């Protein structure tokens, strides 16, 4: 926090002085300063952050499922070790994000309850099945690639704890994306069957990856406000275009094609044009009608219930440890 006036600590006795605080908050955002947990912030800013960070955290932990599906069937020890490390990283990302959300006054328990009750979303992408081993590569290349494109700007998000969590997450996502690319390259250069498997996976994951960036700008309910608050730095369509532009040459190097006959370089725009996205499918997935929505939530609820004893044991251990520390101090 740089300027004292811009960063007033919020307290009950200060209610009524919101206008001054609001001006200071707006000035801090305009000056590209970070807002920190103890700073005054508009209720709607806090609610928007909780919504986005919760959705992001839930995506990380639900995102473990489609990939974990292949851990036992990885084709070599090396691939298995890499995949296990990646899936563990996703759990870690979830934890950084739940912790960052806790700084806004919401507990991890509360957010998980909302996820399990279907009251908070997670990314549409994780409602698609991983049918073959090549899907692990396609997720790494496309899904992690889309995640990085979307998340690198979040390292400059106005809310400090979220921005700082994103720095480490992006470094790890970058490794994930490269392992996916390397996996697909190995398959693409392998037998004709392996090449066909890689192509099939790319065909199935391409369009859902483009949907990860959210609805088109003119239908994005939150973008304008989130960009004013510098939570988001770019619009959904801008980031989607950036992702397409990155992927086309990479697909060529992989020796694979992208399943879009309208994909072509536009000299005037200096971008690739691409075909229409099936927003009906996106809306259906968000409504819970994607191929795996039910399976993902059922598995998540079951994992939570089965993990109850771990949480109880950890709480008992912490209480015992606190007792011992207390006794030693007394
Ligand atoms: N899926 O006004 P909009 C990862 C919702 S990567 C589901 O544009 P916003 C990972 C949106 O929440 C994935 N819902 O919203 C990678 C809103 O509904 P509510 C996670 C979506 O927030 C590899 C409504 O549609 N990444 O974790 O301004 C392995 C209107 O949208 C989606 C993040 O979460 C979607 N694709 O922009 C493992 C990144 N798109 O909330 C894990 C952080 C939109 O009003 N999040 N909706 O009910 C963001 O950057 C933004 O939240 C979004 C959406 C760009 C996704």
Automatic annotation (TrEMBL):
The keyword Transmembrane helix does not apply. InterPro entries: Aromatic_CoA_ox/epox, Ferritin-like, Ferritin-like_SF, PaaA, PaaA_PaaC. Its EC number is 1.14.13.149. GO terms for molecular function: phenylacetyl-CoA 1,2-epoxidase activity. Pfam families: PaaA_PaaC (PF05138). It is an enzyme of class 1 (oxidoreductase). Keywords: Oxidoreductase. This is 1,2-phenylacetyl-CoA epoxidase subunit A.
């Amino acid at each position: 926090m740089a300027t004292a006036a811009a960063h007033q600590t919020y307290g009950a006795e200060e209610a009524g002085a919101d206008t001054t605080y609001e001006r200071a908050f707006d000035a801090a955002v305009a000056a590209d300063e970070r807002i920190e947990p103890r700073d005054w912030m508009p209720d709607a800013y806090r609610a928007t952050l909780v919504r986005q960070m919760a959705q992001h955290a839930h995506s990380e932990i639900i995102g473990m499922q489609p990939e974990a599906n292949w851990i036992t069937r990885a084709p070599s020890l090396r691939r298995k070790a890499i995949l296990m490390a990646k899936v563990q990283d996703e759990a870690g990302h979830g934890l950084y994000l739940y912790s960052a959300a806790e700084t806004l006054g919401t507990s991890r328990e509360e957010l998980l309850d909302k996820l399990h009750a279907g009251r908070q979303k997670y990314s549409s992408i994780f409602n698609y099945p991983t049918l073959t081993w090549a899907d692990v590569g396609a997720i790494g290349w496309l899904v992690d690639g889309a995640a990085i494109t979307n998340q690198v700007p979040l390292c400059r998000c106005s809310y400090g704890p979220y921005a700082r969590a994103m720095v480490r997450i992006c470094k790890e996502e970058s490794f994930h994306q490269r392992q996916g690319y390397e996996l697909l390259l190995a398959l693409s250069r392998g037998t004709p069957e392996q090449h066909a498997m890689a192509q099939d996976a790319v065909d199935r994951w391409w369009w859902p990856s483009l949907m990860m960036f959210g609805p088109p700008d003119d239908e994005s309910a939150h973008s304008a406000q989130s960009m004013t608050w510098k939570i988001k730095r770019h619009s959904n369509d801008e980031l989607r275009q950036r992702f397409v532009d990155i992927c086309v040459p990479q697909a060529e190097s992989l020796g694979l094609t992208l399943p879009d006959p309208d994909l072509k370089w536009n000299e005037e725009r200096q971008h690739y044009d691409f075909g229409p996205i099936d927003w009906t499918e996106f809306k259906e997935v968000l409504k819970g009608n994607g191929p795996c929505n039910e399976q993902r939530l059922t598995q998540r609820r079951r994992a939570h219930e089965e993990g109850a004893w771990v949480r109880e044991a950890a709480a008992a251990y912490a209480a015992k440890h606190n007792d011992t520390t207390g006794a030693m101090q007394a």
